[in-house]
Design brief:
With 146 residues, the chain is mostly helical. Helices cover 68% and strands 10% of the residues. The longest helix has 99 residues. The model has no long low-confidence stretch (mean pLDDT 76).
Length: 146
């Protein structure tokens, strides 16, 4: 009877120790899973926040870059327009000056019929305002001033 009691007590103590061990393992397991889940959620949250901050910073940088490019483009266009207007103004002014500098020269010679006629001019293609007068050879060198 002592053996049976001892045996029953031992079994009972082993069962209690087993249940306590299982309970401790389950609690430890649940705590480990819970801590891993919290760590995972925190990591995911940090990654999401980092990702959103990165995207926001890239968007801001992109907008600033686009704004700077637009400003630079407008400045270049404005400078080109000013340069174009100055060029047109200078060309118009040069056309006015050129109109005032026109000069006509005519040389007359006595032809075979005894009449005064204009000498033929051979223009130079490389210089638009130059040319050569082609005089005919005559026996007498009369010059008639006009």
């Amino acid at each position: 009877m002592i053996i049976c009691v001892y045996h029953d007590v031992t079994i009972m103590m082993l069962c209690i120790a087993y249940e306590v061990t299982v309970m401790i393992i389950c609690v430890y397991h649940d705590m480990t899973i819970m801590m891993l889940c919290i760590a995972y959620e925190v990591t995911v949250m940090i990654i999401c926040v980092y990702h959103e901050v990165t995207i926001m910073m890239l968007c801001v940088a992109n907008e600033v870059t686009i704004m700077l490019l637009c400003v630079a483009n407008e400045v270049i266009i404005m400078m080109l327009c000013i340069a174009y207007e100055v060029t047109i103004m200078m060309l118009c002014r040069w056309n006015e000056v050129m109109r005032k500098m026109e000069l006509w020269v005519e040389i007359d010679e006595l032809n075979y019929q005894g009449e005064w006629s204009a000498v033929e001019v051979q223009p130079k293609l490389d210089i638009p305002s130059a040319g050569q007068f082609q005089l005919q050879q005559v026996s007498t060198g009369e010059v008639n001033p006009h």
